[in-house]
Design a protein that fits this description.
Elements: H1 15-32, H2 39-43, H3 48-53, H4 58-65, H5 83-89, E1 98-102, E2 105-106, E3 110-112, E4 122-123, H6 125-138, E5 144-148, H7 154-159, E6 165-166, H8 174-177, E7 181-182, E8 187-189, E9 191-196, E10 212-216, H9 220-231, E11 239-244, H10 247-255, E12 261-265, H11 266-275, E13 279-282, E14 289-291, E15 294-295, H12 300-315, H13 321-328
Parallel strand pairs: 1-5, 1-6, 10-11, 10-12
Antiparallel strand pairs: 2-3, 3-4, 6-15, 7-15, 8-14, 9-12, 9-13
């Protein structure tokens, strides 16, 4: 993902003014999207047997303890309903919706288009996937309650029962597999450096020495920087103390001159560069990561169902993965999606 792939086909975005508008919209939307209690309380109390009957298999538990390829630590696809899906379907009346944690300010992933009028509708690649999941489970693509959550609240929101699942450019990794379950990968990316075009920073290398770098709290980017600085793969003088609740906040810090660079998933960094033509991606991606849908560890039937939906999503050439990529991401990444398409999924042994 190079700066030359970024094209100015985007309307109404650019610079600090656009960021201020986006942040203002985010505040309005956050007030509109209320947290109405846990998902469990909306669905009603489940029998104790339901809460434990579909706990992770022994194979899955062992896999997370000995994790080498986190993107392969998921359950095989199935269309069968179990306790998690049944609880969602049994919600009464207007509460019969899929409750999903998303981002609302990641351009082209999950965001409110400031040129989109008063509808306030969320759009983007992740949002397309959410509608697909809701249509499959509840028969209505709009049967969704979106909950905007910051980066560092993705796992707590799942564990506390505030959401059924999180679709928010969330990287599958071994550490997170101890706390939540993931679907198979739906997108491939890697960490990259974003900096002003005029900056002498060349990439993830010694040019970051004595530079201040911004990352999002709870992100894989911060964990990588911390690890590499300890091991000597990142200059010890690199200042990584600036962390923010959401990735977009780093771009604002960069625009204000408070930091020298941002480290983020390349897919997100490319979208941020599209919002501000004064910045660009520096160097190549220095990790390989995969986005997955995150769910509770004991929601086996929901994990399997989402994996089946992803199989269909990838195979659907008319309205599936390819169509969504072309609509939302080809302008900021590349017309050729091969670098972003995850490999054929691999699953744990079916129990």
């Amino acid at each position: 993902m190079h700066a030359r792939h970024l094209r100015a086909r985007l309307k109404g975005w650019g610079g600090v003014g656009a960021m201020a508008a986006a942040c203002a919209l985010a505040v309005v939307f956050a007030l509109a999207v209320t947290c109405t209690g846990s998902v469990a309380s909306q669905a009603g109390a489940q029998p104790a047997g339901h809460r434990t009957a579909k706990a992770l298999t022994v194979d899955a538990a062992r896999a997370t303890d000995d994790c080498e390829a986190p993107e392969k630590q998921t359950l095989s696809p199935s269309r069968a309903d179990g306790p998690a899906i049944t609880a969602i379907k049994n919600r009464p009346g207007e509460k019969r919706k899929l409750v999903v944690g998303v981002d609302q300010n990641s351009f082209r992933w999950g965001y409110r288009d400031p040129n989109g009028g008063e509808s306030g509708r969320l759009e983007g690649f992740d949002i397309d996937l959410v509608h697909r999941i809701a249509e499959d489970i509840l028969g209505d693509p709009d049967a969704v309650q979106f909950k905007a959550i910051p980066t560092d609240q993705r796992i707590p929101a799942i564990q506390d029962g505030r959401v059924d699942l999180v679709v928010r450019t969330m990287t599958i990794n071994c550490s997170r597999l101890k706390d939540v379950a993931f679907s198979a990968p739906y997108f491939k990316t890697g960490q990259q450096v974003l900096a002003p075009k005029s900056s002498p920073i060349e990439g993830y290398d010694e040019t970051l020495a004595h530079r201040k770098v911004c990352t999002a709290k709870g992100s894989t980017a911060y964990a990588k920087l911390e690890e590499d600085r300890r091991s000597g793969d990142l200059p010890a003088s690199t200042d990584i103390s600036t962390t923010v609740p959401n990735q977009l906040d780093c771009l604002v810090r960069l625009q204000l001159g408070e930091v020298d660079a941002v480290v983020n998933d390349g897919a997100l960094a490319a979208s941020q560069a599209a919002q501000d033509p004064t910045v660009e991606l520096k160097g190549e991606a220095f990790t390989t990561e995969y986005y997955g849908v995150a769910m509770k560890k004991d929601a086996d039937d929901l994990v399997r169902r989402v994996n089946q939906i992803l199989v269909d999503f990838r195979q659907d050439t008319a309205t599936g993965w390819q169509a969504s990529y072309t609509k939302w991401l080809s302008a900021t990444l590349d017309d050729d999606p091969s670098a972003s398409r995850p490999p054929a999924p691999e699953y744990l042994r079916r129990s």
